Amino acid sequence: MVERSILRSDTPWGEIYGAHRSALISYAERIAGNRAEAEDVVQDAWLHLRQALDRDKLRDPVPYLYRIVRNLAIDGRRKAGRQARHVADEAVADLAEIADDAPSPDVVVSAQVELRCVERALASLPERQRIAIEMYRLGDFKLREIAERLNISISLAHLLIVKGLAECHRLCRPDDLEGDGR
């Protein structure tokens, strides 16, 4: 905490403080980049000046005070830069730890193998059954729409789809897919 005697206006140092405080804050603000930091710098500079006065006699404390303000403001600016870089580095490290939403290569290969198997299984089905499954699964058609398009009953459209999907599942069992690089 700052001793009040150094800031009192009835002391020579208090008069210097009163006469130069605004200019010192403006000077520090230009270097530090913000007013709050500049006010802290000027306060710290007065503490440094007090320590210097205890050790030495200063003939002209004002230039010395400006030098202290400059040095403290530069140090504060450098410290803020280091902290900002540290925060940025931590953010990058945090981002690097976030899981990638992309599937792993083995999942991609497995899906490709399964897709080729389903394509072969569909190609092996009778045309009307293949069309019914494609309309239902890929085109989001309703059973009624499939039946109308294929000129069959709704129950037959349902039966074609169920039996066709069962055949696709039978042809593409996971144990049948292993080692299938085609």
UniProtKB/TrEMBL annotation:
<dbReference type="Pfam" id="PF04542">
    <property type="entry name" value="Sigma70_r2"/>
</dbReference>
<dbReference type="GO" id="GO:0003677">
    <property type="term" value="F:DNA binding"/>
</dbReference>
<comment type="similarity">
    <text>Belongs to the sigma-70 factor family. ECF subfamily.</text>
</comment>
<feature type="domain" description="RNA polymerase sigma-70 region 2">
    <location>
        <begin position="17"/>
        <end position="82"/>
    </location>
</feature>
<dbReference type="InterPro" id="IPR013324">
    <property type="entry name" value="RNA_pol_sigma_r3/r4-like"/>
</dbReference>
<dbReference type="InterPro" id="IPR039425">
    <property type="entry name" value="RNA_pol_sigma-70-like"/>
</dbReference>
<keyword id="KW-0804">Transcription</keyword>
<keyword id="KW-0805">Transcription regulation</keyword>
<dbReference type="Pfam" id="PF08281">
    <property type="entry name" value="Sigma70_r4_2"/>
</dbReference>
<dbReference type="InterPro" id="IPR013249">
    <property type="entry name" value="RNA_pol_sigma70_r4_t2"/>
</dbReference>
<feature type="domain" description="RNA polymerase sigma factor 70 region 4 type 2">
    <location>
        <begin position="116"/>
        <end position="168"/>
    </location>
</feature>
<protein>
    <recommendedName>
        <fullName>RNA polymerase subunit sigma-24</fullName>
    </recommendedName>
</protein>
<keyword id="KW-0731">Sigma factor</keyword>
<dbReference type="GO" id="GO:0016987">
    <property type="term" value="F:sigma factor activity"/>
</dbReference>
<dbReference type="InterPro" id="IPR007627">
    <property type="entry name" value="RNA_pol_sigma70_r2"/>
</dbReference>
<dbReference type="GO" id="GO:0006352">
    <property type="term" value="P:DNA-templated transcription initiation"/>
</dbReference>
<dbReference type="InterPro" id="IPR014284">
    <property type="entry name" value="RNA_pol_sigma-70_dom"/>
</dbReference>
<dbReference type="InterPro" id="IPR013325">
    <property type="entry name" value="RNA_pol_sigma_r2"/>
</dbReference>
<dbReference type="InterPro" id="IPR036388">
    <property type="entry name" value="WH-like_DNA-bd_sf"/>
</dbReference>
